[in-house]
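Appendix C reproduces, verbatim, an entry submitted by the partner laboratory led by Prof. M.T., so that reviewers can inspect both the input and the predicted structure.
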Amino acid sequence: MTLEPGVPFCGHISPSSADYYGFIIDPGASEISFLIRWRQADSPPLKMMLHSPNGNDFIPSMTTNVTQGRAQASLILPELEAGLWVAEVASGHTSSNGNDYCLVMEPVSKKDETAQPFARFNGLYRDYSIDEDGNGINEHAIVKIGVNIKKPGNYSIEGLLYNANNGREIPISSGSHFKIGSKAFKLQLFEMGTSGPYCLKNLTLYDERGVVLDRAQVEYTTRENMDLETRWAKLSGNYSDYGSDIDGDGLYDYLSLDVGVEVFSPGNYSLVGFLCDPNGSSLLWSLGFEHLLPGIHIMHVDFDGKTLRRSKIDGPYNLCNLSLFRGDSTVENLKKAVVGEHHEFTEMYPAFIDEAEKEGNQGAVNAFHLANEAEQVHYGLYEKALQAVEKGEDYPADSFYLCPVCGYVHENEAPDRCPICGAPGSVFKQY
């Protein structure tokens, strides 16, 4: 099997076995970089050895994150032997069923000094603590790592956070979709055990294929006292998505996202996500809620398919903001609903309307105006519900009637006609 630069090869490796890959190194290359991912994240890492054209054997330097099923391997020499090399990937002590994995190779030529990567570290760092609930205790701290981006895309970093008090080294990683410009990765620190200071070490920047773009030997130390509160839960970094056709009409009613969550303390948890187009503009948001016990769980958020179709953007989509909250289910959910509805009628739908007007699509303009008016009504209903719950009172309505045309909601009884779109009250659905 032959590896091409930047092209992933995926396969299955059996227990106590090895796979071999040939690849060509051109004259002048000084470094080979590999990214290995395997399906069974908690299994022992795969091993690698490189065999040169002259019969020399090399064991590359490897940085492994077992919990994410990922390893970065690299070999750096003053000048690599040109010709056909062989990469040996060994299974080690994998499970009895073996393991699925993917491998990407990228040589770096020292002669190509004019080639510039699409992103580089810019040497700017910052850290600060956050008190989210105003109780005087910081729930977590943020460390920002600056990068300069020359091409929009998905980027990620890995490195180490060194505890200056006890010498402990903590693997760190972060990923984000960036536009062009000076941007920053945000590392959120919870459950650190001590309040610092911490030092950043051995940062590596990757593109969306896992190719190394830059490395930084950092000399940055955080503030000494972060006063971090105990962490209740965290996002595990495991995600999957799929479409759901509820009514069988051949169109997806929802784009569903499954999100891995690790819970340390039982309680009610809310997951809020915002979906963006490839340019980073927000399209819509969604909320998931569950009562969770300690352990590993999957939470769900469902993005409305009709809203996505109205945007006329057929993917791919970026999850541009995802937040996990702990707290009282009703109050917390209503607060997030108020924020979400406000975002929809002040930012999301006005942007849709503007784009439809530029395209001269009057039908879309009319539909977006109706939806925007309905969202303002929803916003008012959520605010009223939140005020009632905070006062310990029942909501002052026994039933709700939904207009199936525009989404307007009326309390207690259906109106003669919808005040937004004019649909007759007889078509309203009672809830």
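Residues 119-216 form a domain with the Immunoglobulin-like fold (CATH 2.60.40.3870). Additional entries are available on request from the coordinating office.
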